[in-house]
Amino acid sequence: MADALLKVSGLQAWYGESHILHGVDFEIGRGELVTLLGRNGAGKTTTLKSVMGIVEKRTGSVTFENGELVGQPSDVIARRGIAYCPEERGVFSSLNVDENLLLPPVVKPGGMLVEEIYGLFPNLLERRRSQGTKLSGGEQQMLAIGRILRTGATLLLLDEPTEGLAPVIVQRIGDILRQLKTRGFTILLVEQNFHFAATVADRHYVVEDGRVIDMIAAADVASSLGKLQSYLGV
């Protein structure tokens, strides 16, 4: 891919003695929304963390805007314009919505203003003085996504943003992701809910045993359902 914003080649990663990734390869073009699909334990979350530099050891190559990230600490990677939204959301329970939104530093120009974020997430505007502990699961997820939009990051790494959420909230998250894409964000999404992923993604990479074993374009999903079912067990 000539215009790849992110290119991952031969990526290996370890937690202590546990060798999790065994040579992951994939690319994302600027402005794409791409998913990593796979069963639990396949290495999807570790791939996100490895891109972000928050695993104990990694080798191989991760280039972002043609600059190598392997060997760089996570704070330097964040300042390059990559933001990670973890599965556990990381909302600070003792801070209200406004305070949570304002907590991360701006790392690059071009981040969204708080008013713009509230425009995307009107639920949060209504709850802006509420503490993190008072928010529903869906509101916490919206806050976790909204918080990284201030930073100026152009590549968003989102880990399981729909897990445990009601269908109406899942649909809202999908609407938000499509809006972010139209605003020029590039998104790498780890998602267990394939039916949701199929509504938002340009392409799907299938991860198995710490490797990418297939790539399926959105246009080919209907003709690849049997193969996807065997990969994902759905």
Structure description:
By secondary structure, this protein is of the alpha/beta class. It has one domain (32-53, 74-232): P-loop containing nucleotide triphosphate hydrolases (Rossmann fold), CATH 3.40.50. It has helices spanning 44-52, 74-80, 97-102, 114-120, 122-126, 137-149, 167-182, 194-200, 225-232, and strands spanning 4-15, 18-29, 33-37, 57-64, 67-68, 82-85, 155-159, 186-190, 203-208, 211-217. The strands form 2 sheets. Strands 6-7-8-3-9-10 form a 6-stranded mixed beta sheet, sandwiched between helices. Strands 2-1-4-5 form a 4-stranded antiparallel beta sheet, with helices on one face. Helix 7 links the parallel strand 7 (155-159) and strand 8 (186-190). The longest helix is centred in the C-terminal third of the chain and has 16 residues, at 167-182. The radius of gyration is 17 Å and the shape is globular. 41% of the residues are buried. The mean pLDDT is 93.
List the helices and strands and how they pair.
Blueprint: E1 4-15, E2 18-29, E3 33-37, H1 44-52, E4 57-64, E5 67-68, H2 74-80, E6 82-85, H3 97-102, H4 114-120, H5 122-126, H6 137-149, E7 155-159, H7 167-182, E8 186-190, H8 194-200, E9 203-208, E10 211-217, H9 225-232
Parallel strand pairs: 3-8, 3-9, 6-7, 7-8
Antiparallel strand pairs: 1-2, 1-4, 4-5, 9-10
Feature tags:
four-stranded antiparallel sheet, 234 residues, six-stranded mixed sheet, Rossmann fold, alpha/beta
Count of individual beta strands: 10
Total separate domains: 1
Pattern of helices and strands: EEEHEEHEHHHHEHEHEEH
Distance between the termini: 30 Å
Uncertain runs: none
> Under the CATH scheme, which architecture would be assigned?
3-Layer(aba) Sandwich
Radius of gyration: 17 Å
Multimerization state:
single chain
Helical stretch tally: 9
The CATH class designation is: Alpha Beta
What is the CATH superfamily? P-loop containing nucleotide triphosphate hydrolases
Q: What would you call the shape?
A: globular
Share of residues in strands: 25-35%
